[in-house]
Protein 1
Amino acid sequence: MALRKASSYSKKHVVPFTRISKIKSRSYIKTVPPQKIVKFYMGVAKNNFPHRLRVLSEHRVQIRDNSLEACRQFIHKQLDTNLAGQYYFRVIPFPHHIQRENKMLTGAGADRMQTGMQLSFGKSVGKAAIVNPGDPIFVIDLPNEKAVVLARTLIRQIRSKLPGTVRVAYEKRAL
């Protein structure tokens, strides 16, 4: 199955690019983009909820940090208003991979102002997390079946913000 969403950032064979060196002659990245994900753990930290939902990736994709943050904000806000602290929510992948862009000028006279693809290393524009098939993206621990139904609808609403396809794995734990 071919991926169509975000095909330029969802390459199948991507190498993590994190080369940051303190020696100036070996450093390829001049500036590292700031971290956009504010929190990775939300809700009640005690892990005694019987129902667990895991959002799993079905493809090897890059998930940008602003996409993870948008999903995190939406799910956290909805869970906090509807369940009021009766949940545990976690964002699993950490965006290490630095993405680059070779900016090109457009318009009249642009061909005299840039060199095209000659020495086109690109400037850093953002960060992404490389996720393999079957890796969890989000983990949500919930107290009851009603909360599970709510969380499934929230996950259905954020699917358009994530590249590739995701599936939900449900697990009932004995406590």
Protein 2
Amino acid sequence: MDPILTLIAVLGALNLVVLAVLGLWIRVHLDNSLLELDEKLALAIKSIVDRMMEGGLGDFEPPNPIQGAIAQLIQGMAAQKMNTFDATVMSRGDDGKFESPVKEFQ
């Protein structure tokens, strides 16, 4: 076999081995980073929940009843607007048929 082809084959195999090791190293590093991030987030959420339960987040002004009523009114109007659609009223002729046909259904 030609020594150059052998060298190319060996370098190709070495390249695959290096890529596999690099991929494994990246995966292990990424897994460890995600676990560390998960632990830090869990501690942050736990501390916030603990402070909320103890009342240590500060004094909050209770909601104003009028503001609550206005918020409910706005929510109701938004819900009603979402459940409606635009309609066009068309006039009918003496025979009971529409005077001008609807272009969408032709």
Protein 3
Amino acid sequence: MAESLVEYEEGSGEEMEFDAVAIRCDFSEYESLQEWAKDYFGTDRDGRGWKYRLNVSDDADEDEIETTIRGYVTDRGQLIEFDGGIIVSSF
């Protein structure tokens, strides 16, 4: 997360003021893209979950699933991937 913020500062030329509370409110950490999808979409009242909401077929392989979730997140917010998990901005 820190590396991402430093890269943002360097790329934008804007110095950021560190605000731990704002960062905690704006970003969440997950073990995987699928864990994020399960948390974000949950299950609707018909019992359909994140795969249905993202239009992922039951026979999709892991790469297809991750590509779909990654695209959804990056189209709407910020995704930081690292060994052991991901960090996703709120949107």
Protein 4
Amino acid sequence: MRSKWINYQGYPVFYQDFSGHDHLNSAAALQELAEVEALVLEQPPHSLLVLADFRNTQIGKELMDLLTASSRITQAHVKKTAVLGVTGPKRILAGMLASLTGQEFTLFEQPSQALDWLIE
């Protein structure tokens, strides 16, 4: 699993690393999502700070469907989500994901800005 826990100014943040998915096959993306989902579901409700990284990722229908299903399952365990790498046309997909799942998140370009927002 590429995703991992990081400590930011004393706060545990779950860094979900979906970056560079244009170099990964769908089986790898599915495996990463399954492992992330299992870890998230172990956390208490409304407790998790998430930094999701989609930089250099191509989001097609297959990945969008997987993300939508996973978000629906895990959203009750997440307190706040900051998302990196969602620019241009990907913003439309992000809006669709939020609409379909009810999961709220905020988009950022810089990791430091995202992390600061998560812990405020």
